[in-house]
# Entry
Amino acid sequence: MGMRRCAGAILSSLVVLWLGGAALADEPKASEGERSRGPAASTINFPAVYGLPFEGLTTAGGRIQQARISGDPVCLAMLARELEVAEQVSNKKAPLTSEALMSEAVEMARQRSSVPELKAVALIVPDEAAKKELASTAEKAAAHEQERLSQARSGERTRGIQGRLTLKNNSDDFIMVSINGYPKGTLAPQQTATLYVGDPWFQKTYLKIVGNDGSVFMRSFENVTGDTYYEYEEQ
# Structure
């Protein structure tokens, strides 16, 4: 079984990952990871930023946070349109913009690959190119789901990461973890958790970690062979 090690900054912490999966024919791949930092939505006073009396804005931050925790791209997309209206009326933008939130909703819908969610977000997103891409992705997801069902009935194994994900949080912050857009829970500081990744029909698996301070880390894994060990260290 191969061992792989990679270093990079994440949430001012050390996160250790171990993935145990079935051996696959293709070369195992892991993205370098994407990191971003912004204020947590629940800390933004949207009515004050926009200077608007809309009652819905008072709960916008909490609703965005809840949609992120529960992994709801449709709700995020609708909230993005809500922020877009406020931006147009006030001619102002908050630290979290409607465009950034819509992009997050679209990416979450892609990762989850749920046909109803893809279709719903396609109806909400204003960009025509994104609409077409989501509609196309929905068609592919439906076809893949039918293929997965056929393989399952015939006893054939699907491809992708299969096995356990062990995640150690050595930071002093609570972090939220999601796999392929599906929430897997919250890790307390210095806590270790072992999760079963599942048996997805797609080959690429997405890991997302969100800190309380708004820090976000994303990484994708593809064709993992055997046991793979990843270590991310503060730079």
About this structure: The chain has two domains: 15-36+158-232, 41-154.
